[in-house]
Amino acid sequence: MARVVITGVTGQDGSYLAERLVAEGAEVHGLVRASDAAAAASDALARGVVLHEGDLGDEDGLRRLVDEVEPDEVYNLAGISSVAQSWREPVLTGRLSGLSVTVLLDAAARLQDRTGRRVAFVQASSSEIFGDAAVSPQDESTPVRPVSPYGAAKAFAHHAAAVYRGRGLHVATCILFNHESPRRPTTFVTRKITSAAARIAREGSGTIRLGNLAARRDWGWAPDYVDAMVRAARHDVPDDFVVASGTTHTVAEFAEAALRRAGLGDDWADHVESDPEFFRPADASVMVGDAGKARRELGWTPSVTFEEVVGRMVDHDLELAEREAGA
Ligand code: GDR
What we know:
Helices cover 47% and strands 16% of the residues. It has 11 helices and 13 strands. Strand 1, helix 1 and strand 2 form a beta-alpha-beta unit. Helix 1 packs across helix 8. The relative contact order is 0.13. The structure holds guanosine-5'-diphosphate-rhamnose. Guanosine-5'-diphosphate-rhamnose (GDR) binds next to helix 4 and helix 7.
């Protein structure tokens, strides 16, 4: 039975990944912050995850976790995941999403040396490492040139992963483009839109205040991206893999699709406003990934289209709004 450590187990990807690995019969250990521990405990019990309270900023604690569990696979999904937040807390972002990755990589490499067993490590890398890329679509050879503190932290971690791969650790990076689900918090634009669309549909009026409506992103379905990470961990050759749908849409198009799904099709534009408050100091204008390498080498394919991602999220939020109204 595989023993697995997941950092960020309470997040969108971590929870899907934990469910999948538990269903496969793996022994899954998850790192949770003290502040999330109580809430996570009830969920984790249902998911069959062994929780370990800890913090990415605590180097000794991270090393102890790896030493004690002696995992076959480590999935590093924890960190500050919001680009917008990284502009407010750049130093913390660098520490948690950048430096702490080195601690985990180093602990995994030492474990491998000590036990002589392969330790597979997957780093959740990000399309944000490419910044405002000069080429489109972006692939594994696109220059790393971030434009946000989050992107810089992820770029550091991405390079650190390659360093430890060179040292003999089985490190794969999945360069994840945006991936969504009903488990997304509303701090991200997709869920902000779908939850607002459901509220507007329910109340009959209202607007969604957004930032840059022209930003183009490559939005996929989160469980598909988790599947890519598992494939990367178990692939013979540790490598970098872009994980993306290959299609790109503007924020305005996402809003239109969501409002249409919620039954507000014809006058969808009346429900959307652009507000300078939500613009970022710098933001990539077009992101779209070429996942050809993941398709060829990992046999990975995305299974859910853009329209269906939007549809599933809106349907979930309509149901939620209905339940809350009835409560
Ligand atoms: P992103 O996701 O920054 O790409 O990072 P987010 O959903 O926050 O933004 C996507 C795009 O939408 C624009 N935008 C807004 N964003 C937010 N949050 N709120 C708004 O009101 C709004 N209006 C427009 C943004 O400027 C941006 O262009 C996500 C995270 O999951 C990262 O962890 C991950 O690494 C990357 O995707 C790939």
